[in-house]
Amino acid sequence: EATFVQRFAARAAAQPQALALAFEGAVLTYGELDGRSNRVAHALRARGVGPGALVGLCVERGIDLAVALLGILKAGGAYVPLDPQAPVATIDAVVADAGIHLLVTGSGGAALPVASCIELDTDGRCAAPAASSARLPQLDPRQLMYAIYTSGSTGGPKGVLVEHGQVARLFPAIGEHLRFDERDVWTQLHSLAFGFSVWEIWGALAHGGTLLTVPPAVAQSPTQLFAQLAANDVTVLS
């Protein structure tokens, strides 16, 4: 079965000018998202990332997040989300438990105990040399896609490992009831460190829709949130 990365690639090839991401006035098309994430993927491959490699992802909510996420997966790695808003002790515990040595982070970097960082600039571009012409690896549905850690509210945080194939079954299972397509505008309200973000992000990108990332402060204000949903003609709200 096709992984979500393969489904995204097909969408990017078929509709490169379609709007993929929107955040506080900034937008990115499917073609632009595909190109920027390829550059991140090649930079990660140059650092030795391949199937099964766990890569930390600590990027503020916004367009950069999807670029980094796709880049890690295209390189064959699996992402471990590190919410920049989480307590430092929690982030450090996850880094240590997962054995993370490589981190993808936003502009300015993050002071985390890792050996190496790949930093995205303020435009969400990889601050590494231009992408190689080498082919990126073909993903297997049995490969690890991500490891999301629990909150640790009942003890230490525990990582949950999920494969590409398991996530790929998410939407076909409900497709006959919820007929998503390229006309839909989805919201990302949840942190990447929360499992529901998988539904939000891939629901949009796998169906050719638009992902509207909502800033945390707006998400916490019913009045501001409603205004943003209305202004962007949102059709899918979680």
How would you describe the overall organization of this protein?
The protein is α/β, with parallel strands linked by helices and 238 residues long. The chain is 34% helix and 19% strand. The protein has 8 helices and 10 strands. It has helices spanning 4-14, 30-46, 63-74, 88-98, 164-168, 196-206, 216-219, 222-231, and strands spanning 19-23, 26-29, 54-58, 78-81, 102-105, 116-119, 144-149, 159-163, 185-188, 210-213. The strands form 3 sheets. A 4-stranded mixed sheet has the order 2-1-10-9. It has a 4-stranded parallel sheet with strand order 4-3-5-6, covered by helices on one side. The protein has a two-stranded antiparallel sheet with strand order 7-8. Strand 1 (19-23) and strand 2 (26-29) form a beta hairpin. It is globular and about 45 Å long. 39% of the residues are buried. The model has no long low-confidence stretch (mean pLDDT 88).
